[in-house]
């Protein structure tokens, strides 16, 4: 087992799952909603990027932007359907869970209807080839994935750290009533949360589509893995989600290399069950205060 | 002289439970009003109703002449952020803080208008002048602070923007007598200019002689002093230093 290959694969997977998990985690803690439609956002962003590549430009940067914008729009759509009309009704967590699940299923069917079941492939936006970094060999798409994810994560976290809107989201993640008392409008803040997390899912989709095909239900596995990472990290914790993403990515890389790809889901779920047995609030349950 | 707060015929409660019954209350600019009552008689509900946080409510509430009340049967907190943006600051029981955020983040979160957000550094200094112990704690997460320090953060957060009406729910709750006394003195030092302050408190002796008016709240009804007498327009000694 080549340790450099393992490390690089771990980081690549971690950055992609981190994008999805962070989105799920932020939505849960700020809006109190488990977004089952994050997988739909993922799938539709893949098609958005594909349409851009077909009809506008196959330039890598343009394709990435196309996927990210489609993701943000899909996020806004989900927020408009599943959050805005429901959030002040009784039993909101359950209602929104069902609403997002419905969007996910209906959205998948719509994609099937519009684009046909035949899978699509994105152009290789980072080109084909390898870079040698000392003893390690890294393919362009792995390096590209890591760099793109890191840029979007840093931009998002920096924005959440320094801007008023970011502070509002962090406040809402901790205490929605307290947030209302400092003038935070739930609806508009929720819509920006949905757009930012949608954009993250959009980027994850474009990056993962460098190695997988785009299909109407392509978002299911990434959704499940994003959920696993978000749960293992402790829903609502940014640091926890990132740590969990690295661990889950590592498990996937080791399992795929050592045992074979078909065992990946099994080892990942064994891991999350173990984490939740020992630490019911996830990895970060202890280091941060999150929504309970 | 305009009324900062004018409440007419306010009833409010939660589900089938009525807590406030036809309350009338007027608070004028420059006044500090103490609402005194035992637990469970509606002090918190009165302050929450002004912020739109009760289960249901009916009756008129005017903040600087603008209607913020009316009849509402569901959606507690739905309009709270709008009411806050019209110049209300509520420091509720339990403080409604964000436990993982730092003291500095809390103070900044109170600066919701673009102007206050731009000036947040200067405004923080102003709050620190009222609550000097917070200076050393600016980088600390609020979850690690003591009860008294949290109360200071909650009140300080409410002072970051130009709130016209400050509502403080039980400043003494859960605090040692000496600390609550210091806190009430700090409240009296706050320059409310043309705004007003309403303090709900169980402990009469804590506010006696310090506020402009004291009103009793018993079983959801106000007792005496609910309409400002003309004498109340004479500023209290504590407004001058």
Structure description:
The complex is a heterodimer of chains A (292) and B (241). Chain A has eleven helices and two strands, in the order H-H-H-H-E-E-H-H-H-H-H-H-H. By secondary structure, chain A is mostly helical. Chain A has one domain. The longest helix of chain A is centred in the N-terminal third of the chain and has 29 residues, at 3-31. The model of chain A has no long low-confidence stretch (mean pLDDT 88). Chain B has 241 residues and is an alpha/beta fold. Chain B has a domain at 1-85 and 207-229: P-loop containing nucleotide triphosphate hydrolases (Rossmann fold), CATH 3.40.50. Chain B has helices spanning 43-50, 80-85, 103-109, 114-118, 120-130, 147-158, 177-189, 204-207; strands at 3-14, 17-28, 32-36, 56-63, 66-67, 88-91, 165-169, 196-201, 213-218, 221-223. In chain B, the strands form two sheets. Chain B has a six-stranded mixed β-sheet with strand order 6-7-8-3-9-10, with helices on both faces. Chain B has a four-stranded antiparallel β-sheet with strand order 2-1-4-5, covered by helices on one side. In chain B, strand 4 (56-63) and strand 5 (66-67) form a beta hairpin. In chain B, helix 3 (103-109) runs parallel beside helix 6. The longest helix of chain B has 13 residues, at 177-189. Mean pLDDT of chain B is 88; it is low at 231-241. The interface between A and B is medium-sized, with 23 and 32 residues.
